[in-house]
């Protein structure tokens, strides 16, 4: 499984590759495409609700206008009403219900497509009936419906396009065989054809823009969670991820362990080798640490300066101690020369480990971090390059608490709290 920070880095790389590759075909790589569909469904509520509202308002207002302002003869009004209120309106109401109850479901997409078909079929039906009595229900209304669908339904372009093409063919056939309006019919077809073209162009460009905006916003969201130097979670993301993992541990009643890890004598390393080498050493240590967060709820991040935090969820005492010891060993095995370290001739880390038993799973994460910090301080005092473990206890008296090593005073240079 992926380490916690890799779970953030992988999408970042994927998105950058997608931006470089482009998406003129309106398709992303499969992993991104799935995420985009979710986003599209979530973000389409308002747009789809507006489209349904326009459909309902359109049917109602044309019913009102037909018999009053337009003065449609009585026989035509009857047929028109039947189409409007037994075909078009029920479909619009089904979509309204869907939109109210399952606004982000996949069935909403199907509802939008059916609405499109029913609205166009309804208008064409009315046009055929009207034309037989010499009345001309504007064909352009079909074109306007197509533009509205492409711009507001938020159904993906490649799903809508075949439907639109089928509707164009059906419309032309109906126009040529059933509608008899002479030259004005040709003019209608020409202007409606232009509206269809506008619908296709608007549909393509609006989906392209939505995809472009989503890619960039998602990239920024991921980047804002990563520490630029090490690629681990940054302090802000670390705190929220720790809080999330901790809440999960509380709900599920899981034991867990938190390790605070600090590079030994890193100030001396910088002084001796320079800050650029210091940065490279930090990156190398971070890579070694990231490999120790292997399960989805494990967390690894840069706490600040040369200090890191690892959380292992659902982890027993022995397992946590073994993992902490492995962290220390793995950094030592990198053999990054450190001529000024009092602990070893290479870069080493000290680790403060706090294990939290199931019965203390509801302990505040801040208290657990404080205990881990105290253990780290002890590891430093005892000579560095070692692990000091402690078990979380909620029943420490004030006296016991004050006997424990206190967290370090604030040090601006190291970026500690
Ligand atoms: N190169 C580099 N150095 C950093 C970075 N962040 C913090 N540091 C350095 O880390 C050092 C931390 O020093 P201290 O807090 O005094 O601790 P230490 O020298 O590691 O000593 P002990 O922790 O007691 O073993 C400081 O010199 C900081 O400048 C960074 O991003 N890059």
From TrEMBL:
Assigned EC number: 2.7.7.65
A Pfam family the protein falls into: GGDEF
Transmembrane segments: 51-70, 82-100, 112-129, 159-181, 187-205
InterPro entries xref list: Diguanylate_Cyclase (IPR050469), GGDEF_dom (IPR000160), Nucleotide_cyclase (IPR029787), Rev_trsase/Diguanyl_cyclase (IPR043128)
Top-level taxonomic group: Bacteria
Domain GGDEF: 254-392
UniProt keyword list: Membrane, Transmembrane, Transmembrane helix
Disordered: annotated span: 381-417
Recorded catalytic activity of this chain's protein: 2 GTP = 3',3'-c-di-GMP + 2 diphosphate
Protein name: diguanylate cyclase
Organism field: Salinisphaera dokdonensis CL-ES53
Species classification: Bacteria, Pseudomonadati, Pseudomonadota, Gammaproteobacteria, Salinisphaerales
């Amino acid at each position: 499984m992926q380490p916690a920070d890799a779970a953030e880095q992988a999408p970042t790389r994927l998105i950058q590759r997608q931006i470089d590759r482009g998406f003129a075909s309106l398709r992303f790589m499969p992993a991104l495409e799935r995420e985009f569909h979710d986003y599209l469904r979530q973000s389409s509520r308002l747009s789809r609700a507006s489209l349904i509202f326009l459909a309902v308002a359109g049917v109602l207002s044309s019913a009102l206008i037909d018999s009053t302002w337009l003065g449609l003869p009585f026989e035509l009004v009857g047929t028109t009403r039947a189409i409007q209120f037994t075909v078009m309106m029920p479909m619009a109401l089904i979509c309204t219900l869907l939109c109210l109850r399952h606004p982000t479901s996949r069935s909403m997409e199907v509802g939008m497509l059916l609405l499109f078909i029913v609205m166009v079929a309804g208008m064409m039906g009315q046009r055929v009936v009207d034309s037989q009595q010499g009345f001309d229900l504007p064909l352009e209304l079909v074109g306007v419906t197509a533009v509205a669908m492409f711009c507001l339904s938020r159904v993906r372009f490649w799903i809508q396009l075949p439907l639109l093409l089928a509707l164009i063919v059906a419309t032309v056939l109906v126009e040529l065989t059933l509608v008899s309006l002479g030259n004005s019919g040709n003019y209608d077809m020409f202007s409606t054809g232009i509206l269809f073209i506008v619908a296709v162009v608007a549909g393509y460009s609006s989906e392209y823009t939505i995809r472009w905006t989503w890619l960039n916003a998602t990239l920024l969201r991921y980047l804002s969670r990563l520490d630029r130097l090490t690629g681990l979670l940054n302090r802000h993301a670390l705190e929220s991820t720790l809080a999330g993992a901790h809440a999960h541990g509380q709900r599920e009643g899981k034991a867990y362990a938190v390790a605070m890890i600090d590079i030994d004598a890193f100030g001396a390393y910088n002084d001796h080798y320079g800050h650029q080498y210091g940065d490279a050493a930090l990156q190398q240590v971070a890579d070694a640490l990231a490999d120790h967060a292997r399960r989805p709820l494990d967390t690894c991040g840069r706490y600040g300066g040369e200090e890191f935090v690892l959380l292992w969820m659902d982890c027993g005492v022995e397992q946590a101690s073994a993992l902490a010891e492995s962290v220390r060993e793995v950094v030592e095995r990198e053999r990054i020369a450190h001529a000024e370290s009092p602990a070893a001739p290479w870069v080493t880390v000290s680790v403060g480990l706090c294990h939290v038993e199931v019965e203390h799973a509801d302990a505040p994460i801040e208290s657990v971090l404080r205990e881990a910090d105290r253990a780290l301080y002890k590891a430093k005092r005892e000579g560095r390059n070692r692990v000091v473990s402690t078990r979380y206890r909620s029943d420490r008296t004030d006296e016991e608490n004050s006997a424990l090593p206190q967290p370090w005073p604030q040090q601006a240079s190291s970026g500690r709290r």
